[in-house]
């Protein structure tokens, strides 16, 4: 006799998903996201000023669109930043890791010799000195 498989969600799927995130907008009963409400907008943005995903905030598609549009408009009006630069302190600043050691001496010299220097009498006939010499000859004759 063949075994009948049960349809529906398996225990693996439900364990992986965990608890469903509830939207801030729903808990606080906010119907319209105002672009001037910076404190509310910052709750939908990461520390680097990126708009948080729906799965993180728990918004519906419509709420997420409203939040994203409000954040974009607030960015345009310079109420919230486009990007926040986060700096981190480096540890062991003296060590250079696998990048090699820095030279303490003078800067390295170029490997190629400098281009040859052109003297006035060895220059091309189309040079500025050659043209001025020709114009002087024409004016004397």
Task: Describe the 3D structure.
- This protein has a domain of 51 residues: 30s Ribosomal Protein S18.
- 35% of the residues lie in helices and 0% in strands.
- The protein is built from 6 helices and no strands.
- The model has no long low-confidence stretch (mean pLDDT 78).
TL;DR?
The protein is mainly alpha-helical and 141 residues long.
CATH superfamily of the domain at 31-81: Ribosomal protein S18
Which stretches are low in confidence, meaning pLDDT under 50 for 5 or more residues running? none
Strand coverage percent: under 5%
Helical proportion, percent range: 25-40%
Gyration radius (Cα, Å) is 36 Å
| N-C termini distance | 122 Å
The helix-strand sequence is HHHHHH
Which structural class is indicated by helix and strand composition?
mainly alpha
Main β-sheet description: none
* Overall 3D form: elongated
Specify the number of helices: 6
Text of the CATH class of the domain at 31-81 = Few Secondary Structures
Q: Average the pLDDT over all residues and give the rounded result.
A: 78
């Amino acid at each position: 006799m063949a075994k009948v498989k049960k349809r529906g969600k398996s225990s693996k799927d439900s364990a992986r998903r965990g608890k469903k995130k509830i939207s801030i907008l729903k808990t606080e009963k906010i119907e319209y996201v105002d672009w001037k409400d910076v404190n509310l907008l910052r709750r939908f943005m990461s520390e680097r000023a990126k708009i948080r995903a729906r799965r993180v905030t728990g918004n519906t598609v419509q709420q997420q669109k409203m939040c994203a549009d409000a954040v974009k408009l607030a960015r345009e009006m310079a109420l919230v930043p486009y990007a926040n630069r986060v700096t981190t302190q480096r540890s062991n600043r003296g060590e250079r890791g696998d990048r090699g050691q820095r030279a303490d001496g003078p800067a390295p010299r170029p490997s190629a010799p400098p281009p040859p220097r052109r003297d006035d009498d060895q220059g091309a006939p189309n040079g500025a000195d050659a043209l001025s010499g020709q114009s002087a000859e024409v004016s004397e004759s």
